[in-house]
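Journal club prep — side note

Before the paper discussion, L.F. wants everyone to see what a predicted structure for a comparable chain looks like in token form. Sequence:
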Amino acid sequence: MAEEDLKESPTSSPRNHLYILFKDVRSVLKLDELGLEIARIALPAALALTADPIASLVDTAFIGQIGPVELAAVGVSIALFNQVSRIAIFPLVSITTSFVAEEDANSSSRGTGKDSECLETGLKANEENQELIPHNDSMTGESRSVHTPSSSFSVTKIPDKKRNIPSASSALIIGSILGLLQAVLLISAAKPLLSFMGVKHDSPMLKPAQQYLTLRSLGAPAVLLSLAMQGVFRGFKDTKTPLYATVIGDLANVILDPIFIFVFRLGVRGAAMAHVISQYVIAAILLWRLMGQVDLLNPSTKHLHFGRFIKNGFLLLMRVIAVTFCITLSASLAAREGPSPMAAFQVCLQVWLATSLLADGLAVAGQAILASAFAKKDHKRAAATASRVLQLGLVLGLLLAVFLGAGLRFGATLFTKDDDVLRLISVGLPFVAGTQPINALAFVFDGVNFGASDFGYSAASLVMVAIVSIVCLFLLSSAHGFVGLWFGLTIYMSLRSAVGFWRIGTGTGPWSFLRSP
């Protein structure tokens, strides 16, 4: 798609604004300019996003060899840690990506104008200097070459400087504070939180669950800080750097897991310690790379945009609490069914989330490109980007459904040998595989809404979705047990996709330009 075509305003708009979701559907896999940009951002982002759930799957596989009680205990602890983390992480990362993309787009536009002006001024000054230099045929070729326009201008070239992105500094400060608060909360309130999750004082799961949660919580500051930095890199449309850092950190986790668990005989404590070390490795790599690109230390307090972060962060906090409560509630209800149902639910949930997060790579690409397009008021590009990433999300979801339907049935024994757990995993398999297209669209719609800075609608719609889903989870789990939980989660993800379709379909909010004649 040509650049001039992208910047044209739409000359016509269909009555049904959902038309943009099906526009140019035959080109969904085309590697044109937009397709290549999405691929450059989405592929590394998807791999980085799935790295941590895969690391949790590795933890789950190693711990499953210890016993079903330990597997269930760690499942509860991971679910609790991840959901508490999401309350802080999701708003911070999402807002950081959008704000950094906007600031980078605006500064690039201003910088281009300044660079052109400097270039023109430098060339004019060079021409004037040439006129003042007498032409002497006796001068050597080397002497004459010193005064050529190209060599003279190269002397006046302004060296590259670090980017001045106030939102990057704001995100790191906020991430550090939230990480420390999360660590204090989880360590000091481990028993009450586990009790809320269904692990009572007389449960055999309590001791290993508390050990794992307490030790893993020591890594919370590194988790929050590294994910804040990932948000900054995503805003720069650089998803390769977070991928490299995450892969190195998770490889450390995979190597240390069997050493700490089996060689040093630390059990679940060893798994937690390996994970904490890997998170600090990731944070150190990202900080080192970011300090080489961004001036993090010099922005004044008035430029840090804390008010903007807090305002939009509060909206997304409401949204994340709603989302988090649904997942946490489902894990809590599974724990109340006993160790075997909880162990099976843990395996199914980790696979469900790990594969679904592949679609989050498309969400990251959509958010970064859309935030830049809306900052430049390039509505044509915004519509084209939303259409392409949603179509790609549906294709990805269908592929994942086929892959999981065939693979999980044979791969379940990697996580456990217990017959009861394996039987329940086979019951959850149709839901894990069948909901992949729905999940993919729900994740991509998140990126589309955040790229349009539609934080208010995202918060309000998900609160309503959560209310309905919580009622369904209680009713269906009480009537149908383990199967009812997965029916409830299917309803939850379906409603999340539906509210995304509604926003674009009605052409409201940031999508009101779709109604322009």
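L.F.'s comment for the group: The chain has one domain: 10-112+160-515. Keep this in mind when we get to the figures.
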